[in-house]
Write a structure and sequence with these properties.
Mean pLDDT: 94
Strand content: 15-25%
Number of strands: 8
CATH class: Alpha Beta
Distance between the termini: 8 Å
Helix content: 25-40%
Structural class: alpha/beta
CATH architecture: Alpha-Beta Barrel
Length: about 220
């Protein structure tokens, strides 16, 4: 592998009638993580899956399950997703009035915690929590739907986060994940700008050979 990073295929773009096959494709391609987008049709204008689906997926894979909650009142779903088998739960800073309590709640379940923000939200909103999370998820599209184009301003935001982590000596403890518009043609740029984890959905599951596409990402 030329560059050390983790690829997290997003099953939002997979065939929901056969998610077991989607997991098999991820295994065949050698993906590190499985990214699961949870939407409630309130925080974002889309509705996806809940804890029962995550529980079913957990029974079919040992891969790291990366649950991205795009929901209001995220504290109500932390324990259900933790019990269902999530390895990491990411919540949005805009979705709660008390981010600290959500961080503490996720930690209390024994799993990893991530924090995310929309492209228009100032980075200063999440900076107080850098030393309390395991992952920072940078949205490079407006959350809600897969298949969108990468927003160029995301690269500068990611570099700024990386610089702040370096200043606080957190660069080896906190991962930066990027979600939105990740394709084979721009993945190397995203990695070079500081990404540790790439989320790719339509680029993988919309390709003719998803397992090969996963391998192509790793062979960049």
């Amino acid at each position: 592998m030329a560059t050390e990073f983790k690829l997290a295929p997003s099953i939002l773009s997979a065939d929901f009638s056969n998610l077991g096959y989607a997991l098999q494709l991820c295994d065949d391609g050698g993906a590190h993580w499985i990214h699961i987008d949870v939407m409630d049709n309130q925080f974002v204008p889309n509705l996806t899956i809940g804890p029962p689906v995550v529980k079913s997926l957990r029974s079919k894979t040992n891969k790291f399950m990366d649950v991205h909650m795009m929901v209001i009142e995220p504290e109500k779903l932390v324990n259900p997703f933790a019990r269902a088998g999530a390895d990491l739960i990411t919540f949005h800073i805009e979705a709660t009035d008390d981010p600290q309590s959500v961080i503490d709640l996720i930690k209390s379940t024994g799993i990893q915690v991530g924090i995310s923000l929309k492209p228009s939200t100032p980075l200063s909103d999440i900076e107080p929590y850098y030393d309390q999370v395991d992952l920072i998820l940078v949205m490079s599209v407006e959350p809600g739907f897969g298949g969108q184009g990468y927003m160029e301003g995301s690269t500068a935001r990611r570099r700024e986060i990386k610089d702040k982590l370096n200043e606080q000596c957190l660069q080896d403890r906190v991962l930066i994940e990027v979600d939105g518009g990740i394709k084979l043609h721009n993945a190397k740029e995203v990695i070079d700008a500081g990404a540790d984890v790439l989320v790719a959905g339509s680029a993988i599951f919309g390709s003719e050979n998803p397992a090969k596409t996963i391998q192509d990402f790793y062979n960049l």
